[in-house]
Write a structure and sequence with these properties.
Blueprint: E1 15-17, E2 23-28, H1 34-40, E3 45-48, H2 50-53, E4 75-79, H3 82-98, E5 103-107, H4 109-114, E6 124-126, H5 133-146, E7 154-158, H6 165-176, E8 181-183
Parallel strand pairs: 2-3, 4-7, 4-8, 5-6, 5-7
Antiparallel strand pairs: 1-2
Helix pairs in contact: 5-6
Length: about 180
């Protein structure tokens, strides 16, 4: 299935390894978060696979080895506190436009409103309120493909916190951007 339409969660399933006694290892983060697993299985240790935290370790789950879901133009992700991200995006958008680029932006409603006037509306993709990870996850793949058939020359995206569903979101953004994440 190349495009099954919109879905509730927006990120593929969580893949776990339960072969080690007393432990659940998350091989690919998804909509079922580590916190959810711990709540249901409090007697087990929940940990992330080494491949999720180190580029030197081979991944053991499908869809984790190569850059997936990458848009047709280069993607840069900005992660950090909301106001810091807004400031960094403002500088980067101006820099790219001065260089003759046509950047597009995937961000929270709050961030896009704070940057209003910098980009034409056609170059922005709203992903809900800042911090609403459910909305961001649900629109993530559509957002990454949204600008493929436009004349945008680069894509900037606002990241989210790496906790809960944010672990899966940042994992997918990291893969789509080829690891091009700027922490501010």
């Amino acid at each position: 299935i190349l495009d099954g339409g919109s879905c509730t969660w927006g990120v593929e399933s969580t893949i776990v390894d339960c072969t080690e006694e007393g432990c659940v290892t998350i091989l690919r983060p998804g909509a079922v978060t580590p916190e959810m697993i711990s709540a249901e299985l409090p007697h087990l240790t929940v940990r992330m696979d080494a491949a999720l935290v180190s580029a030197d370790t081979a991944p053991r789950a499908p869809g984790m080895k190569y850059t997936h879901y990458a848009p047709r133009v280069p993607l840069t992700v900005f992660a950090g506190a909301g106001t810091d991200v807004v400031g960094a995006l403002r500088i980067e958008i101006k820099r790219r436009m001065a260089a003759g680029e046509r950047p597009a932006l995937i961000a929270s409603n709050d961030t896009i409103m704070a940057l209003s006037g910098l980009l034409p509306a056609a170059y922005t993709y709203y992903c809900g309120a800042r911090g609403n990870q459910s909305t961001l996850a649900a629109c993530l793949y559509d957002a990454l493909r949204h600008f493929d058939d436009t004349d945008a020359t680069s894509l900037l995206a606002e990241g989210t916190g790496s906790v809960g569903l944010g672990i899966a979101i940042m994992n997918r953004l990291r893969k789509a951007s080829g690891g091009n994440i700027i922490y501010v």
